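Input.
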Amino acid sequence: MGFPRILFLIFLPGLLFFACQPERNYIEESDARLTFSLDTVYFDTVFTTIGTITESFRVKNPHNQFVKIEDIYLAGGESSVFRINVDGQPGTRFSGIEIAPRDSMYIFVEATLDPNESSDILRIQDSIVFLTNGNVQDIDLVAWGQDVHILRDSTLSGAITWTADKPYLILNYAYVDSISSLTIEPGTRVHLHRDALLFVDGTLKVNGTFDEPVKFAGDRLEEFYSDIPGQWGLIYLSESSYGNRVDYAEIINGTMGILISASPESGKMPDLEITNTLINRMSSYGIYALNAAVTGSNLVIGDCGGSSLGLIYGGDYLFTHCTIANHWPSYFSNRKLPALYLADYFPNYDSEGNLVIYTGGEFDRAEFRNSIIDGNGRMELVIDSYDNRQLNYRFDHCLTRINEDSLNYLEDPLFSSIINNENPMLDSVPYSYELDSLSPAIDAGLASFAVEFPFDFNGNDRLGDEAPDLGAYEWIGE
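Output.
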């Protein structure tokens, strides 16, 4: 084979490639405009210094010829709080971008807002400008920013008070040491970043009111995240904590609402009084209590990926007029634990990584009065003893969801005046869990229990009709 023939064979594929490429014809008329999938990119309220989610839109070439965009740029330039990515490249200005006939490309937008030293929510605006054949078009960028008190790896010492002037944002953790207290005033919003926790060795006092509850939630304020669980870690009340009180709080969208625990060998029992509080959309437990003393009233614990309420190993527990209703959606995960779980043992790992089963826990008391224990499972109340011992519990005037093949409550004297496996007709699931007008929980409570808590979660009088209703809410007719 001669040398020229070899060259011919080498270059033939390239010659064929270029020969097959159609000629690029560009539309150059001044009225040839781009089209867009939207005209404004909105970001819901975000915290300053914390980046937004990524939004996107499509830039379309509606013509039968190529279009060349001479310039795409952020009007605010390098000083803009917004960031854009065009055709896979980040920057603030792009030139000579081509779009094939009837084709499109995506532009991605993010923002990080600067602190504004204000308690007000401020509107920030910029635009992306497109220059094509002398035409100027633009897409507006709009974000609302909120200043916050930022706590990153923070230790709180002394008598600390948080007020409602600006939200608080916890990154990693905020730690209340053993000789200190944290008081949170009405209307305060506490936001926690992914996996962040409020760690209390001392005392936590949450002093919300009906009109101004204290709110604990994640730091993603966009509408998309409003019901997504697992966005932050937990509130941890350690074995050294004492005198903890939570009143009128909303604790939502975390991994675990409240963990209060003491190791079996410590001999300690941390305490918590929790009233008029909603815990909802936790990816694990709503409240996990191990060797603790907890009293709850007008307490609502809703959808959780584990148990809404876990009382583990031992402790002293009294819950009156509480609604524990776990309607965890299956599209999040397959929940395997009941709404309420009592157990006198728990598994853990020792310092060498070996699994250890701690058994023999003792309940001083685990009592539920005028309460609802419900969910979308067949068995929403499980009492579990490692050695099949009789545990110290009592359920008095409650609506429950119990599989009688697993728990024969009818022959158990520790169950009294039980309405079982009837739909409680909860309204507004999965948010408030108030009673519907046809609920069997209406007027099914015992007045002597309600006397201790004469007003329900909404401030309605429980003692003004025939009998109090079960759960945290009193049904009020028209």
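Residues 6-12, 14-19 have pLDDT under 50 and may be disordered.
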